[in-house]
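Pipeline run #58 for the internal structure catalog. This entry was flagged by the ingest filter as a single-chain record with no existing model, so it goes straight to prediction. Upstream metadata was stripped on purpose; only the residue string is passed forward. Reviewer on rotation: M.T. Logging verbosity set to normal.
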Amino acid sequence: MTNFPEKYLVSACLVGLCTRYDGTCKPDSQCMQKLDGKFWIPVCPEQLGGLATPRTPANLVGGDGHDVLAGRAAVIDANGLDVSAAFVLGAEQVLAIARAQNITLALLKSRSPSCGLGRPTGVTTALLLKNGFHCQTFG
């Protein structure tokens, strides 16, 4: 049995799973290189929160993921629907996986309302950071 001292969580879209909002697959070669030889678990917070693929694109409104978690901002889709609850649920599911698997690093999709890090920080990333997990973005 192989011993994996490091366990990574990774946005499913970065490893070629067709989980993006538009249903397309766009693997990231730099992320794949970082994962080489590591134990990794792909996740899609938006799917874990109950949203379909494909789905209407959504954006953070009134702040970032930290603000959504605090109830000061929202995630609104292109039709004007508030999908914040699904984003928070997905983030909570990812956090549960990260804790259960003793994740050492989360590799997440940049510029995502779930997984972005800075400019702005997404809901899932904010929750992981709040709970002491290290995050890095790709793509």
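catalog note: Helices lie at 29-35, 45-48, 65-69, 84-100, 123-130.
catalog note: The mean pLDDT is 96.
status: ready for reviewer M.T.
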